[in-house]
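Morning, I've got a small favour to ask if you have a moment. I've dropped the whole record in just underneath, so have a look.
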Amino acid sequence: MTWALDALGLADDADERDVKRAYAKQLKVTRPDEDPEGFQRLHDAYRYALEHVRERAWRGDDEEGVSTETPAAVEELAPIEQIASADVLSGPEASADSVATAIALDTALASTDTEEEDDALDLPAFLDQCIAHLSQDDPASLRHWLESQPALWSLQMKPHIGRWLLQALDERGSPVSSDNFEVMLKFFDMDHVLSGVDPWFLQSLGYRLQLRHELQPGHERELGNRIAADTPLHERLDLVRRAMKQLRKPFSWPGALWFGLPYGRASQMHRLVWNLGGDHVEHFRDVIDVPQAKFWLDAGDTSRMSTPRRALVMARCVALIWIVGLVALAVRWLVADIAPDERGTEAMQALMLLAGGPVVAYALWECWVAIRAYLRWQCAPEGADVRSPMLRLFWVPLLAFVSVLVNSMEFSAVAGFLALAACITGLLRLGRRANFTFSFAGWRLLFVLPFLKGATGLIVAGLLTPYVSALLAVIVWLIDALRHTRAIREAMRMRFRRPVADSGT
């Protein structure tokens, strides 16, 4: 190893401190960005010289160079090759804080001379510095800063630091633009498949960091192109600014209900939050208010009922009835000549309207939602995932049978209603599943009145003669069943087939 000492200009009795000082001095002259090959030869000489003096001190060949701290020095060399391996770095239990205590770099990673015996790289602080520049600098400034860091001049430690930086970015989720992320990958030589890093992981990490970058104030235009691509271009900026302003506010029921009063606002917010993170919005709790985001996910979901959706509909009913009612009452009291003895009655009626009107409107909405859910359940195509598939299949004939049974008990009004419900359900089921459509555009407007007369006659006949409605319902149901015989048979076979016994082979 004397060639390594000669390359550093040292005598044979040089110790570890002399090796580090000599390397630090020559590093000022031989820089990696100016002379990469010379820097590689200098670094190899330093590594072999350092290994030589440590091994000599450990064996006790030179008594003057023996130090009581040499066993620790020998142990210090191992983590560079072992702890910084790809297997350990990729493990879930590895973290920047835990690895930092085991990795210590020599003073050659510093560009200035030092009198300290053990100048170690503070890895967590250096990673914090890297992430700060990744989040704030432009691509050119970031590239210049990375190239000027002595800690990244070591060709041996550079890929390991790059992996630690990736792990720290994955754990912290800092905002990093896609351009800066590409600069980082290219600098650490991780922008190709031979780098050993999972390409899918890099793509997913880059997407999440770019999204966090766009969530920062001032990047609403980029965020709008991501989460509001289906909105006209001239409306995206205002839409995203308004939505992000609301999502950053602490959640409160009055504030959320007031913001969601305009029609379509809830579904719009639901779409934006879903495009933002879906059910994983808690990952952005440092950027947006998670309860606020979850409120809009529930309030704008029309496929199911939830407390935020019901509360928002009730608030709309109250606002609508009160605005219309108060305007109508103001006009009446200003225009009409109300006698003094009738003003009490008028006031009581106004209170009943303002109190009961929203309740009635909300009840009508609940009924409409229930009817739509019932029709979706009945008119879904065969093979769709629905509740109670067997009950759904035989629901129409079951209603017809119950109507006949109730009619035999002389409850004709209830029987007529059940038979009419079975008939209408069967007709809609057949029409929707067969893709029948009614269109009265153009010359077909001539048939609007005959159609309405026929529908009214069918309803009256169904109410008066439950047997006719029940028979028609069964006929329509049989036609639909014959059209889907194969699908129904396959569904029955899959539902009632016997499990095959395990032979044990």
